[in-house]
Queue: 2 jobs
Job 1
Amino acid sequence: MLLTIDNLRKAYHDTPIITIPSLALNPGTYWFRGINGSGKSTLLRTLAGMLPFEGSITLDGQYEVNRHPVPYRLRVNYAEAEPLYPDFLSAHDIIRFVGKAKQATSEQIASLAERLGVDTYWHKPTGTYSSGMMKKVALLMAFLGQPALILLDEPLTTIDDRAAQTLLALIQEHQARGVSFGLASHQDVGQTELVIDRVFLVENGEVY
Amino acid sequence: MKLLINTLVRPYYIRNAGFLGVIFYLAFGFMRPTDHYALMAAILTSPFLFVLTTLLWALYTLRATVFVRQLISEPPHRFLLSARLLPPTIRWSGWVLVAVLLLLPVEGYASWMISHGVIHQLWVANGAIVGTVLALVGLSAGAIDHRIRHPYPTRTIRVPRPQRPVPYVLFFPGFLLRHRPVALLLTKTASLGLLVGVCRLYPTDDYDQRLLLICLMMSLLTHAPTCRACYEFETTWLRLLPNLPFSRTTRLTRYALTYALLWLPELPLLLYNRPTEITLTYVVLLWFTGLAWLLLFHARSYRADFNPDRWMQVLLLGFLTCLMLIMFGVPVWIWLAIGVSGCLLHWRMRP
């Protein structure tokens, strides 16, 4: 079992945002769809171990996020929908820092940077980036290291067609290697060439 | 108007609680009303002292205005930029209200001075005070309006870029240097000025060790907004951070190094100005106590149930409690132990 969720409840100031009594996911690719404000991003951020919550989320049957935060976060990567980085730092500074934390090799970083076209603005400060350039940095970092699960929030928004094709190819390559994906999108990811194992509808904080 | 107060004025007072607490304590803790009346009489009759007072008020106005201008440029507040679409009269009335509320401490003291001037029939001086306050309000409102019309400054401080990747411990100091240089400068000036002042002005005996501790607490209060700024920096600009596989110890060590860097200027200054009766060990302990308390402030800012509204009350009440305990003779190593254990306790409670 890839991910086991038990009695998950995420609330902001007593307002429940996500409630999942029980959910077990086998390795695979999952698409969480829902309208704006349905709780997709909060769900992904919670699964990425970025937000406090009630309940438990266990990876591979052994790493519970709150009890084993380091191995869990080492194997669960995340790319946010609208990334923002300190404007005086370059992609180089941020990716090196995250890459070291995720135990990525220099070769892996260089290869991903080249494929996504991040190498063309590698040393420029992020303050000069467009939202698409920023998004490619976030997507690159989601593939660093040896993740078991990659969570991508609105992966296809703001990036150009070429980058979108590269991203889809990267996802397919990683799928072939047994890496699982959680995609949150209001767009129709099903129309791409991706193999989606299951579609979840996120509505009013509940997952169907 | 309510929106402007909630988004610009309230955050200013909440984030600068420590700084304002120190000013309040210095003005009304050390000085009696009679001292204030003597000071006012001197200011109202001496052009030199009047210019000096105006400069201090201008410095405060600069701090408050720069804070609001920076707030407007930050992503969560960028919706305020649409205010430039409003007619100038409505827009300006909003900025004037914001400026008036930001400068309340200046206006309060100026009103007190004016009432003193009325009693002594110092009409020219009173006119000059009114003119100064109106000019400061106008300049502040104008500076806020300028930022709304020119939201993305083309000239900012250039942080030197080394060839090697910037290490994590320099991320936050770099952000402060680039985005909050005035706040950083004023914080360090106030903190260093307080420490040097106490070291140099007072003769030393057992009593003055306590005075040095009180001064340390005041210096820490001036740093309280910096600790909150670190939280805001990471939740706005480094949102990926909680996903990174760092243990709690690694995270705490990184923060300790970051704050040690920010708190570092105080160490050589304390060592250089150390009164002969104060031992080297005491100064080093004092510096580490400061670092531990900064980390405690930081850990407190990161709590899930952190309420910014209560931050000011906690700081002021905490400061008064510390003051009493210091006067009762609680030594520096106890304060170090409180800082370290409080920080570790908060850190353990973090999700």
Job 2
Amino acid sequence: MRLLRHPLVLAGLAILALLAIGEAVAPGFAGAGQLRSQFVIAAMLGVIAAGQNLVILAGREGIDLSVGAMLGLGALVAGNVMDGDNAMILAGLGAAVAVTGAFGLLNGLGITILRIPPLVMTLGMAGVIQGLLIILTSGRPSGRAAPALTRFIIDPLVAGIPGLVFVWAGLAVLLIWFLRRSRAGLNIYAIGTNQEAARLSGVPVTATRVLVFALSGAFSGITGFLILGYTQSVFIGVGNAYVLPSIIAVVIGGTPLSGGTGGYTGTIAGAILLTLLQSLLNAMAIEPFGRQIIFGLVLIGLMLIYGRQDRLRV
Amino acid sequence: MTEAAAPAPESRPPLRIRWALAFVVFAVFFAVNAWLQPSLLTARVLTSNLTSFLPLVLVAIGQTYVVLAGDIDLSAGAIIALVNVSVVTLIEQAGGSGGAIALGLAAGIALGILCGLLNGLLVAVLRLQAIVTTFATSIVFGGIALWILPQAGGSVPQAYWRGYAGGLGPVKLTVILFLVALGTAILFSRMRWYRHLLAIGGNRLGAFQSGLAVTRQRVISYVLCGLFAALAALCLVGETASADPLLGPSFTLTSISAVVLGGTALAGGRGGVIGSILGALTLGLINNIVFFAKLPYVTQDLVKGLIILAALAGGILGARR
């Protein structure tokens, strides 16, 4: 029974249930071709949720509402550096990560040194970046993905699995290792659990907190780069649809918003779960508003199962 | 447990300081606006500004109660959307008479309260995390709004928007509504439950242990937020004379900005409604300033974003002195 209440087990069961329902509603839903495209979409949510995961783990009301704007910025920078040239793919990725990482760093500095609450700082930063995007593009789509990048992301690479999914898997292994085995990763849990205790035991609290926000920026930039590759050109508001889903993937993956506990394994399950749910609703022949209502109700249901906080005790 | 923990101490002095700071920020932006737009200081322009800021002022008041209790309501904008389309549709279906308008107003307010109650039950009674839960309910409310009215449209009878644009003698109805909202907020802040709300937001466990009805107070704060969001929606109907399911959502994050600009701590327990009202007015003035500064169109959003970020950061830094 205890095992059943583990977020990861629950998310896994929910994923299997969604696949079964999907197959019953729309035969072929759990087929290889469908699953492949599902995983590509889940990977993009999974990468942006990785940064969100680190920020939330570090606690102190950690949350990053600027990931969507940074995603748009990353896509814009990558697209203009690449401009359809296969030789510039890595340069495009590097430029996107450098720029969004720098904005993430600014978030971190504002939150630690000026002590602005994360929600306020990242909300304000999102407004600034959106304004910057309008100036840079005059509101028109700008920049093109390199054709090889698009093929890498969509087409099967090995054993019918697209390259993007391997990238996500590699990133996941790295991140899980980082969180469980590296000093910096353990520091994130330490400041998320009890910042004062962490400080007293010599954890560089400020540096760690700045790091998680910078990494969140970098992961948003990577996601922008990937989405650009997936859709070939993007509009500046592309990231807005990712902000709250990135938080929800983390929370239904078992990392509470209070931080200090959880990890990326659950977030992977959360990202897959959210993606399957969306696509199941799309596969069902119901009106868009009906899909939206069911989506919201399922989220509340998921939260009811294991997103509950402890009862206040005397 | 034989002895109750000490109740959270009163925090009157810092409360006033926060309010004063929000006022200084407001005054600075007001002066800049008046400098760029000399006609601001006429009664007509002041009234029309107040009319366009009123919906945000109302949502910001409601959001403040939730934030003071240590929670947050990301569904306020969706409640506005839902009430907006419901009221217009209901008045149309009921025939558009005076009675239909009264029915629409009452139903809109009841609907807002109901939405707030649902949020309160999920967050306070079932103990779900506020940010994610109210985001989920916002998806549901927004979906129902689209179900009722898939795209902007509909219209309310002339009596509705004529009445909204009217007034008592020379004083516009919107000015009266603003003053009533302000008066209600001041009245509420002198009541006992408001003190309890501050205590709960400041130290939830401590408040619970000293016997305060924590769960009930948190539900009440969500109900108030739903109520004020509904009032904002009714004002929007009066202003636009039609319904738009996509009009509401932008109010959610703006209302939180207004609350923070007003000096209320997002962690709960410190701040107040008057600050939020000033914060909402300040955000409206920033829009005016960016418009009247005659900046190139493409740079307006960046300048606005930078001013808001600076004002938020400045307010938080100033409050700490």
